[in-house]
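Translate sequence into structure tokens.
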Amino acid sequence: MLCTTRFFFSYKGVLVLLCAFFLWRFYICETERNFYTDKFKNAPRSDPSMVALIVRQANTTRDVVDRMSSAWLKRVDLYQFFSVINDGNGTVRIPGGRFAMNHEAQYRWLSHWIVSIARADDFDFYIFTFDTTYLIINNIRRDLKGINPDEPKYAIIGDCEHWASPAVVLTRAAVLLLQEGVLTIQNTIHTTKCYNNEKQRHNLCGCLEMYGLSPINLATDDEGRSKYLVVQRHFSRQEMKMTMREHGYYWDGKEIFESLSTDMVAFLNVVSLEQTVLDTLLYRLNRQEV
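Result follows.
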């Protein structure tokens, strides 16, 4: 017992324990990486092919994975969930500590982890978004038909300066270009081009353009109407009561549709239940799908 105690409190014992810990972490990361790569390699392809990478937020329930998987995610060629914790249910852990929804975490997510492991030569387009997003994939795929995936381009569905829940669409060439930029610098947030630039650190569009990417417009139609909606009122039993409390009367809010396109591509800031509701309204009731 005395020998064991001396060993653990000696510097050699500490070094052995540290080495064992890092070897274990390396094994876990490589196992996840190999699984992830094989999953990409064996996935079917559409035209254009599309993969979705989704970050789960800490305050969301686990059923969001099931709801999203049975809704819009089934229309992409491949998808993968990421989270700060690996709680199973098809979710891969994002290494590096607690994930906070802010611009620093966004840069880290785009430039350090997912970009570094994505098999950019396998798919035409990559969608990076959050579990509060519902995308109309059929419309997005149609809008991307004429885009060359071998040109470094990006599209932001959402506000470039609003970090709540945008959807970022990158071409294959854009992912490769970002990856090259990341691999030439240290793997920390504070050494990225965007973070060191005061003008661009809060602007995702400006950040991506600093890497040489050119924009694609998926956010508005030819008349300037928005093709996405940031949902502020949610389906619930209390919706009417909450609206009356806020406005003094029940306000239907129908004027928001005056600025919306008839050719929508996304709903942002949705709750878990609305993944199912939107999918039913968009695809089941108009019999686009059975």
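Note: The radius of gyration is 22 Å.
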